[in-house]
Known about the structure:
Layout: E1 28-33, E2 39-42, E3 52-54, E4 63-65, E5 74-75, E6 78-79, E7 88-90, E8 99-101, E9 110-113, E10 116-121, H1 137-141, E11 146-153, H2 165-180, E12 190-196, E13 199-206, E14 209-216, H3 221-226, H4 229-232, E15 236-238
Organism: Caerostris extrusa (Bark spider)
Protein name: Protein SSUH2
InterPro entries: SSUH2_homolog
Amino acid sequence: xxxxxxxxxxxxxxxxxxxxxxxxxxxxxxxxxxxxxxxxxxxxxxxxxxxxxxxxxxxxxxxxxxxxxxxxxxxxxxxxxxxxxxxxxxxxxxxxxxxxxxxxxxxxxxxxxxxxxxxxxxxxxxxxxxxxxxxxxxxxxxxxxxxxxxxxxxxxxxxxxxxxxxxxxxxxxxxxxxxxxxxxxxxxxxxxxxxxxxxxxxxxxxxxxxxxxxxxxxxxxxxxxxxxxxxxxxxxxxx
Length: 239
């Protein structure tokens, strides 16, 4: 088998090695063999690279004590028919040799070693919701609202034109935080979006108590079914 070792070409440094990732903002991990770093070495599990290792079933003994005669060799005054009078039963896994084909090197005796390059693409997501609703944050994040603003670049700038000044402040805080929050990672791309989620308020009367129900306008039918009438009553705000 061909071994791409240092003799073929001097191994290059990790810095500058190009890794192509086609889909942005998706978590994934890529493993690549680093070029010109391979070499062959005897298997560390085999006995000096003999391609065999100790049997796990009999612990290298080649057999086990006969359970029919408890290792005596005789049963009821006669020779044990299970072990033929030896008191031991031959291991079914290694046929009594105590050695089996090494599972690490697959019986080859040698292993090819190389430097493995592991690149992890991690998507760091943070969000801010204006304090205008008492609905759980997770429910609001599951809804796809109307997109008001979107920017994608190597680095994004804070939003400064929103009518709600709290949005401008939160945008600046998130951008500044992500600039220094991951010192051991290389930022490949950033994306900044601003969405508006419609919120409907309905006045209700339940058991002589008046209140209001907060409902999200959800276009997805599957998510709408999850918010049954009983579940909506959990967010009834009594006045």
